[in-house]
Structure formats: C-alpha cells, structure tokens
Amino acid sequence: MNQKLLYILVFILFLTAFPLTAQEDLIINTHNRDHISLNGDWHYIIDPYENGFYNYRYKERNEADPEAYWNRPVIKEPSDRIEHAYSDNYSLKVPGDWNSQDPVFKYYEGSVWYQREFDLTEAQTSGTAYMYFGAANYEAHVYLNGKKLGMHKGGFTPFNFKIPPGLLKAKGNFLVVKVDNKRSPEEIPTVNTDWWNFGGITRDVKLLLLPDNFIQQYSLQLDPENFSADRKNQILKGHFKLNKPAENSEITIFIPELKLKEKLSINGQHLEYKLPFKKPELWSPENPKLYEVEFIYGKDTLRDKIGFRDIRVAGKDVILNGKKIFLRGISIHEEIPQEVRRARNKKDAQQLLDWAKELNANMVRLAHYPHNEYMTHTADSLGMLVWSEIPVYWTINFRSEEVLEKAKKQLGEMIIRDRNKASVIIWSVGNETPVSPHRTAFMKSLVQTARAMDNSRLISAALEVHRENGRNIINDPLGESIDIVSVNEYLGWYGGLPSAKENSTWEVTYNKPLFFSETGAGAKAGYHGDRNQRWTEEFQAWYFKETIKMMKRMPENFTGMSPWILTDFRSPRRNHPRFQEGWNRKGLIDNNGNKKKAFYILQEYYKEIENRS
Ligand code: GCB
Predict the structure, then answer these.
(1) 564: CA distance to ligand 1 center in Å?
(2) DSSP H helical segments within 419-577, as ranges?
(3) What is the pLDDT of residue 2?
(4) Best mutation site among 333, 488, 565, 573 for ligand 1, i.e. most ligand atoms within 8 A of its Cβ?
(5) Cβ-contact 584, 541 below 8 angstroms
(6) Strand, helix or coil at 549?
(7) How sure is the predictor about 556, in pLDDT bands with cuts at 50, 70 and 90?
(8) Average pLDDT over residues 31-59
(9) Any atom of ligand 1 within 6 Å of the Cβ of 517
(10) Cα torsion at 87, 93, 96, 99 (round to 10°)?
(11) Which among 325, 322, 327 has a CA at the least distance from the CA of 310?
C-alpha cells in the first residue's frame, strides 16, 4: 500500500474511533422536542489513572475489552476476574457538579465514569434518536451499549450524538459517560482561572426522539439592516438548517398572535429568508414580550417563544429599539453559593435573576462562560438583558491554531444555542486577555466569527485598563474591533484605596460606548469596622459609593456597568483563612444569602437612575 493511502486510511480509522462532534450537528430548542429525560441518579467510578480507558500499556482499550468501563461487566463463572462494577452505593445526581455531592470530590480533577441504564418501548427504539447533553465539564466520551457515540470538549456548551440505527433496545440500555475535568494549557479555559473547576455532567441529559427529517437549527429575529424605530413595518430575518437535505419541501412559519403564516419552500439543507413583519410589539426590559412561534416541517412541529428587538450602538451610546439605554448590570457566576454548587435548573436561574431584579438591574453579565439555558430562558421572560461569554480567560495559548479552533467551537455552540433569545444582547469573546500581537489576532478572529454568525447583537470582550502616571488609559488594540469597549476596573481595590477614584479620569482611544464589565471589592459579610479596614462591609460600601460618584461625575462617559459580583463564589485562589476560606468575597450577597451593605448602595443608585437613558 502506498504511504499516502495508508495515511488516509489511518485518518478515516481515527475519525471513526473519535467521531468529533461539530457545532453544525447541534440540535437546538431541545426542551420543546420529544425526549426522555436521563436526569437522575447515575452510578460512578472515580478513575484518576484512566484505567477504564487505557490498558496497562497505556493504549486505548478495544471497544469490546471486558475491562473497558464502557462495557457491562459480565461474570459468567465464579472464577472470572473483573476489577470494576457500577453499584448503587456509588451514585451521583445528574445534572450536578460532582464536587458538591460528596466530600471525596471536593478538590478532585480527573476522570469519573458515569453509568446508568434505561428502558424504552419497542416503538421508541426504531426512530431517529440523539443523545443530548446540556454540558459536561470538560471532556466527555459517550458510550451506549458498548459503542462509542462520540467525544466533546468544552465544559459549558451543549452537544449531541446521533445514535446509530439498531443500537437502542427496549430493555437495559447501558449508557456510560467518561467525564474528565483536568485543566490543561491547551484548552479553554486554561490552567489558571479565578473560579472553581466544578466537574461532572453539570446540565440536563436527554434522549431526543425525532422524526427522520427535522429542523435542527433555526434563527428568527428582526433584520438589523432594515430596522427603524418609528417604522411599524419591520423585516423578519431567519434561517433554517435541516438534519438532512430536502427536495421540494416546505416549512411553515406560524405566529398565531399576529396571524402570520408563511410557507417557504426548501431544497437542500439550508434556507435563509426574509419576511415583512407588521407591527410587532418589541421585546424590552419593561415589556418582555414573547411571541409563540411554530415551525412546521413534515412531521416536525417545533414551538418556541421568541422576542423581537433591535440592539445597536451609535457613537458612544447603546441603543435598544431606537432608544438610548443605560445598562444597570451585575456580573454573575453560575453558582448557588448557599449550596456551594453549580446552578443547574429553572429554580436556580429564578433565584439568581430575582436577586438581580431586586438590585434594580436591567442587565446581567453571565461570567465567564456560557451559563445553562435556564438562565437565558428566564432572562427572556423577565426582561433581563444578557451578556454571554466564552471562557477565553487570561493566558490562553494564543499562538496555537488548535486552541483558536477550540475557542471558535465554543463560541459557535453558545451562539447557536441562544441566538433566538431576545435577552442576549452581547456576545463576549473573552476576559482580561494580555495584549500582544498573537493575542489580538486570535481575539479579532473570534470577533469576526461571532459577527459572521450573528449580526443582530453587539460583540465585546472585557479588557484591562492601562495605568500610567495616575492616568487610566483604555487603548487595547482589540477595542478597534468590538462594539462596546468594556473594561474591568478595580481602582481602589487592586491599587490604592477607594478614594483613588475621586479624581480619576478615563482616556479612551475609541469613540465607542464605554462599559465597566467589572468593578468591586471584597468583604466578609458580618465583619464590620472602619471603612479603611479591608474586608469590612464598610470598606466595600465605600468602594461602591466612590464608584457611583465617579459614574455621576462623568455621565457622558459611561453606558453602564456590571459590578463584580452578585454573590460570593468559590475560588481556589482565595486562601485567606479568616476572610476568604476558598471564597472570592466580592459578592454583594454572601454564601448564606445575606446581603452586604454594598448591595443596598448599588440598589439605591440603580433605582435613582432607573429612568435614565
Ligand atoms: C477580574 C476577573 C475576575 C476575578 C476578579 C477578582 O478582573 O475578571 O474573574 O474574579 O477580577 O475578583 O479579582
């Protein structure tokens, strides 16, 4: 065999052994599709040496290897040797991070095997089926009945695998997922972050039961190129992607409330379209209007609730539906601090966003990675504007093409999942990435990707302030490419005392909106004293008072802020034994749900400027 052919063969073998999931395969709006929830109790095996995956020569085990943990351990004779098994004595709840479920996992970073069984009716075994994961942190290998379905990297975005025909059975389907949350310099995020590396199957798992031909992805929004605030007649812009090409087929779009029913013909797998759209009520924080929308394609009828709004910038302003808006934001990590765990369901989303509402916020920055879909759903119905971000954080390997591809994949998965959520107004491509030519090229490439996928939202990234002889300069070259120049601002916490803000000025190279994507100070709830005393609630309150004074002093400079942060959150970097104990204490609310003084200061300011544009 010639060498080229051999390479091709090896490559094909590689692809069949590791069918990588592509964002193109992602199925959206899974909650409104026929599915069987596979949430619940799963068995687990902790496997730091990856013994279930590699043999003793450190080669990946063959698919049929009885010692591979994806295979059901079978003992035929009492003399048979099997050195693993799944047991009810070792179980974890899915969805959920493993760290919070058993002390053995608190600091664990490595491989864990999850296993469960499920039954189906005969009819359910024969259709088109996909295994769907809301997210698993970080690398997941999925096996069903001894066959590998695929592998996915990225801890905060959804993925799914098609189940080969004939693999599902009515009784005793054996589903195994190997999840590995080891940090690595070549991944996203990288080894160093200021948040807890919660591992596990952190989001919902579903078996999707679909028609043979179905709508896999779609978008539907106001066409930004044809929007004008006073014109009642807008243009709807959208696209469909089918799971496989169609010939002379039809898709119907139906919005009952508006009596809009349009039949579009589709040939092939993709369709882009525009439609006249008369007098829609626009979605906004004051009026989070969502329309019931139905898409009908053959046997596939898919429902969604979609809001329509326009977001853009003009000079230094952010404009929502033709009106200037001030973003009264707050940053949030995806954590329920009272239970020291990842947020994972609707109730959690409601709790976090209710706190944001109580603060009089109209916007949340979902830091530093895409949060679960309940957050953006709930934000849609509450009228909360959203900044959504990928974990390109600090020192990513910006020289690597592969790392860039990984970042683009996560960006693509985030956008595809949430591009029909009116609440999401900003895609952020990263946080505090250190300026260098490689980094800027890397980040600009992400900006371009986001723009090419979605021109109905703003693109940003949280940048750093450059300090020179007491001047605060914002001149990061990435500012050229993004729509909102966002900076993390800690004058008075990192550097000096809050009084440092008194005469501060901000020099921005760009004639663009300026947004403080972070600002904050740490305080241990219940610790009181002089305002000069770090860690007291009084210090933090002072910091916020000075920040607010600064905002008032230069109203024309700012389009808003999302202070750091709604609640205290877990971080391995925060090791002061009295004040931190593994918590970043910049929360306005502590890990018992108690509001600190600074909460009320920001709440009052946001109330005062509620009607400010
Ligand atoms: C930042 C980071 C954020 C940290 C925060 C802090 O600038 O973006 O992830 O948690 O500062 O508390 O230092």
Answers:
(1) 7
(2) 437-453, 537-553
(3) 53
(4) 488
(5) no
(6) helix
(7) confident
(8) 98
(9) no
(10) -50
(11) 322
Could you tell me the pTM of the whole model? 0.95
Q: What are phi and psi of 378, to 5 degrees?
A: -65, -40
Domain boundaries, the chain: 33-210, 214-312, 326-612
Q: Would you put residue 96 in left (φ > 0), alpha (ψ -120 to 50) or beta?
A: left
In this prediction, what percent of the chain has a pLDDT beyond 70? 96
CB atoms within 10 A of CB 429: 27
Closest CA to 275 of 219, 234, 225, 218: 234
Asked if residues 586 and 547 have their Cβ atoms less than 8 Å apart, the reply is no
For the cut 60, the answer to whether the pLDDT of residue 15 exceeds it is no
3-state DSSP assignment of residue 229: coil
Q: Does CATH number 3.40.50.970 belong to domain 33-210?
A: no
Mean pLDDT of 509-538: 97
**Mean pLDDT confidence for 190-206:** 98
- Is 326-612 in the same CATH topology as 214-312? no
The per-residue pLDDT for range 124-133, each reduced to its tens digit, is: 999 999 999 9
Which residues contact residue 2 at a Cβ distance below 8 angstroms, ignoring those fewer than 6 apart?
none
Measure 590 CA to ligand 1 centroid, in angstroms. 17
CATH class held by domain 326-612: alpha beta
What ranges in 388-463 are assigned the alpha helix state H?
401-418, 437-453
Separation CA 170–CA 517 (nearest Å): 51
3-state secondary structure of 499: helix
- What is the 483 CA–ligand 1 centroid distance (Å)? 22
Distance, CA 196 to ligand 1 centroid (Å)? 13
Give yes or no for residue 30 CB within 6 A of ligand 1.
no
CATH number for the region 214-312 comes to 2.60.40.10
pLDDT of residue 555: 81
Query: What pLDDT sits at residue 124?
Result: 97
- The Cα 605–Cα 545 span in angstroms is 9
Coil, strand or helix at 375: helix
- Alpha-carbon distance of 124 to 147, in angstroms, equals 19
Choice among 120-124, 330-334, 464-468 with the minimum mean pLDDT: 464-468
The two three-digit tokens of residue 289, written as one number? 């209007």
Look at strands 159-162 and 300-306 and give their pairing: unpaired
